[in-house]
Design a protein that fits this description.
The chain has 142 residues and is of the alpha+beta class. It contains four helices and eight strands, in the order H-E-E-E-E-E-H-E-E-H-E-H.
C-alpha cells in the first residue's frame, strides 16, 4: 500500500514538470468594419458625396480625409475632397492586436463604371496592428 501511494506521489510530481500546450482562440472582440459605402448626389449645383460606415468592436476609428470618427456614422464631403484619392477607413481596438481596413477607391470606380455611387471600387483587409514603418504610413494618412 505504501508503495502504491509513493508511486502515485512520484507520478504526480513528474506530471507537474510538463507544461500543457496553450491554445490561442480567435478573439471575439477583434474590430470589424460592417459597412463602408458612399453615394454621390447633387445639392445647389455642387457634386457631394455621403460616406457612411459602421464598425463593430472598434475603440478607434479613423477616415483618411476626416480623422477620428465615431464607430457608426456618416459625413458629407465635397467633390474636391473625394477626388484627392482613395478614402481609407481604419478600425482598431485597444484590447486586440488586429485592425480592419477598407478603402473606397475613386480611381478603380471610374475605370469600372463611370459615374460613382455605392460601394464599388472598395477593398478590404484585416491584419495585425502595424509595426514601425506600416504604423508610420497609416499615421501619415491622417
Amino acid at each position: 500500500m505504501l508503495i502504491k501511494i509513493l508511486s502515485l506521489f512520484v507520478l504526480a510530481l513528474s506530471l507537474n514538470a510538463y507544461e500543457l500546450p496553450t491554445l490561442e482562440l480567435p478573439k471575439e472582440n477583434s474590430p470589424e468594419i460592417i459597412s463602408f459605402t458612399y453615394e454621390g448626389f447633387m445639392e445647389h449645383e455642387a457634386q457631394l458625396y455621403k460616406i457612411k460606415w459602421k464598425t463593430l468592436n472598434a475603440t478607434d476609428v479613423k477616415i483618411s480625409i476626416v480623422g477620428s470618427v465615431e464607430s457608426i456614422g456618416n459625413v458629407v464631403i465635397s467633390e474636391e475632397e473625394y477626388n484627392r484619392g482613395p478614402i481609407v477607413l481604419v478600425a482598431s481596438n485597444e484590447n486586440s492586436t488586429d485592425i480592419d481596413k477598407q478603402t473606397l477607391n475613386k480611381i478603380a470606380q471610374d475605370k469600372k463604371d463611370g459615374p460613382p455611387g455605392g460601394q464599388k471600387g472598395s477593398s478590404s483587409s484585416r491584419q495585425s496592428k502595424p509595426q514601425n514603418d506600416d504604423e508610420e504610413e497609416i499615421q501619415n494618412m491622417f
